[in-house]
# Entry
Amino acid sequence: MSGTLQALIAEIRALRATYDEATARAALAARAAHLPPEKLARLEALIFLDGQVGNVTRAAGDPVQGQATLAGDSRLTGANVGVNQGTVQMFFGAQAPADGKELLDSYLRALVAEHGRLRLGKLLGKEQSGREQTTMPPISLLKVFTSLTTEALIPVAPFILGPQELLEQMQTADPARVLPEQVRFPALDRATLRALPADERAAGWPERQIAADGAWITGRAPDEVWEAARRDLEGARLPQTLSGHWYRPEQPLDAIRACSRLVLLGGPGSGKSTLLRYLAVSIAEALLRGRDPAKPLPIPFFCPLGPVAGRLSNDPEGDLEALIDALLRPVLGPAGLRAGLRDSVLLAWRKGGALICLDGLDEVPGALEATTQGRRSRRERIAEAIRRLDRQLDRSRLVVTCRTRPYEQDAAWQLRDDWALRRLQPFAFGQVRHFVRAWYAETCGSAQALYTSAEAEERAQRLVEVLERREVLRELTTSPLLLTMLALLDYNKEGDAREAGGCVRGAGQAAAGSLGRGALERCGSAPAEHRRAPGAAAVERRGSTPRVAPARLRGPPAGG
# Structure
């Protein structure tokens, strides 16, 4: 890369850090208007996609915000020293109280204690036989959390390769084998498309425009899309040289980084709540270890919306206050033990020092009821309270989760205007492999563990083989909740995974029944005949605007 371009990248990044992304993008558009579209797209990726919202980063490359680094087992490295002075000053302002750091550390430790364990809840109840299941050892959320993906694709790097080289590089980025951050989809550019024989274009490579700001996957797990792309490339008569661009699946943390207002949709059991808890806990632990004062982290706030609805009066004018009170309640602590934080929290919200996670809009009742302003549902009122909170904040980030179907039922509780929308995608099998191994590695480290480290590793490998081999089980693993149920049952079964396979299959069928067929479809776990469609699946690219050949890759859904 030339020194001129490097200087331009540094300049735009500095503008972004000093002001905001909108200012930086406007400056880039003015300074780089002479560049070809492909080079401009590459510059945008380097400037706006290569950084982090801060940069708390998992070893695999999963950005959160700040400057801590999570090791490969998702444990944060470094001594537990508490929040640094930069965070204290950002949170409290120039005149921080003498006990400010102590109060803030106390809140963050309480947040980690409340949300830092994987929540198994009713999954630890009785089996159908009535026999109590074995008590599970506590499982750290950070250690077993597995990266999720949305329907968007993010440009990574250009390529110029021969067909065989392209296929070989794809094999190292197979979503059935690796985590989402390592997955790569090839997008062929316009020159390559023109070089294809006419019958190839007619048979499997029709040009189809998708969103100008990226490619999108809907209704398919990433491993299905990748496999279809591989088959297309193997079966086509291709030129000796292929040029295009690599894409990877967008992770929710990418979307949170890029969008200060975000709605995350997903089916039941798709990992929405777990994702927000993971985000809050990972930032809290990073803060407690002390970070570079020059790049302080935001303070995370996590609030389930269902309980907020129960505290609403019949006067919608008080709904915003009820929402703020619910957000503040865990901060201030029981009996107001940390009451001194209240004013500072509100200041941090206004100044952009907060990440506010609002979980489960669908858990708020949607039935109409009488209020002082006519008949309105509590879900509609909570959505309006979120809009009002949004208008009071400037630079702080807001993330709201909701099940897909309830959100799409009525515009009254949809968040539009400046709110971005993403849909969580089903697990690919590479995510399944990671979760099962992380699950067993974490369970064997406790005094309550049933297995030694070697036994746990062997059981994890055997369970992966069972899930991969049996189609009915593999279908279920696309849902993080159902996968957790399968892992829990396998852990509590005597004998090896081959014996447990039948029990696992039975549990899968029971789990499917408990969620219902419609729920499984919303999770992306519908039967194979409903999830597969013929046709090509290679992503294509035309100039700076991605193109797509199949029905598997399509434009963003309405509202996306």
